[in-house]
């Protein structure tokens, strides 16, 4: 009897939540469709509460930061937890959810949508099993996320010209967290048998200051854009900033080539898996002539690199996506989804 009563209450809460969400969506779309003519009431702003800020450094946030910085109207961003009861969306970065549920609000309001946020790969994401039936939306680097937040992208730029920085060495790599068990450590060790790699970063006791990274890396013809783990769509700043923005050719280790080609042109990078052996890859890099090398920069004639580094921009993107998101949906098994 006790279980059936509990189940009945749960069903009632679900029905109430869906009902309230439906009313909110209807109101949202009606207000969105209203013109700004005389007599029309301005639609209520969407309130997004960031429960914990994703990064250690919390930037200045005004209520209208989305409009002020990114021209996204009708949206208010806040980190004030006392506004929980006004929030339409609550954002929870996974890194701040540890060690468990005690950091979550005690209750979830009907019609309120919770967002799980992570830029880490599944290999570096712990304790997902306890978050079943908790979050409505996911916000990750995965293209199939409800809110897709890549590390970077290429944006059209027809007036762009090819700019290849002067080169003084062949290959470089910046690495801070070196673990011998990682695939990238194995590949580097074997590749370095056939060519010299200029290694920088904490792992090699050659840390680079923030302003020094790009000028240093740009002097290399090639950059080892090796991801710390291999997962679908997990293509990080190692490609976008350290390689393409720096003006060097990325040698990538990550998901398959076809996955990279969903983000960047096929002739803009070299994939480790393009070769039968690392010796063959090393020979390809060492013997490349100037004409062939310049072809890797053809993308610069059509595109420029946009980096996503500001969490305010990422979170404000929820506002633009909100009308099209699946309201009332819950992820029954977050771990299974993220590891798929």
From TrEMBL:
Membrane topology: Single-pass type II membrane protein; Single-pass membrane protein
Catalyses which reaction(s): an N-acetyl-alpha-neuraminyl-(2->3)-beta-D-galactosyl-(1->4)-N-acetyl-beta-D-glucosaminyl derivative + GDP-beta-L-fucose = an alpha-Neu5Ac-(2->3)-beta-D-Gal-(1->4)-[alpha-L-Fuc-(1->3)]-beta-D-GlcNAc derivative + GDP + H(+)
Key word Transmembrane helix present: yes
SUPFAM superfamilies: UDP-Glycosyltransferase/glycogen phosphorylase (SSF53756)
Predominant localisation class: Golgi
Family: Belongs to the glycosyltransferase 10 family.
Protein name: Fucosyltransferase
């Amino acid at each position: 009897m006790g279980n059936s009563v509990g189940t009945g209450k749960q069903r009632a809460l679900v029905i109430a939540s869906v009902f309230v969400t439906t009313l909110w969506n209807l109101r949202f779309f009606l207000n969105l469709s209203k013109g700004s003519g005389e007599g029309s009431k301005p639609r209520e702003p969407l309130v997004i509460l960031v429960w914990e800020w994703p990064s250690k450094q919390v930037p200045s946030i005004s209520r209208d930061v989305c409009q002020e910085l990114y021209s996204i109207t009708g949206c208010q961003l806040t980190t004030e937890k006392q506004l929980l009861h006004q929030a339409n969306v609550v954002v929870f970065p996974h890194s701040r959810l540890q060690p468990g549920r005690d950091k979550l609000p005690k209750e979830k309001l009907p019609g309120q949508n919770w967002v799980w946020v992570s830029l880490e790969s599944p290999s570096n994401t712990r304790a997902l099993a306890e978050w079943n039936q908790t979050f409505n939306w996911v916000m990750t680097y995965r293209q199939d996320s409800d809110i897709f937040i890549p590390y970077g992208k290429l944006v059209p730029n027809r007036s762009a010209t090819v700019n290849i920085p002067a080169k003084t060495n062949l290959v470089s790599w910046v690495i801070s967290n070196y673990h011998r068990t990682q695939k990238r450590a194995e590949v580097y060790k074997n590749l370095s048998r056939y060519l010299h790699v200029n290694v920088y970063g904490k792992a090699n006791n050659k840390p680079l200051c923030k302003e020094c990274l790009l000028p240093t890396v740009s002097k290399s013809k090639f950059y080892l854009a090796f991801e710390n783990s291999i997962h679908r769509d997990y293509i990080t700043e190692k490609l976008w900033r350290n390689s393409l923005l720096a003006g060097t050719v990325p040698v990538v280790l990550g998901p398959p080539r076809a996955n990279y080609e969903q983000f960047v042109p096929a002739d803009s990078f070299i994939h480790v898996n393009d070769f039968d052996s690392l010796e063959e890859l090393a020979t390809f890099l060492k013997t490349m002539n100037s004409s062939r090398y310049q072809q890797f920069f053809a993308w610069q004639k059509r595109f420029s690199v946009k980096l996503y580094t500001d969490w305010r921009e990422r979170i404000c993107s929820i506002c633009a996506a909100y009308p099209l998101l699946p309201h009332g949906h819950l992820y029954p098994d977050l771990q299974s989804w993220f590891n798929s």
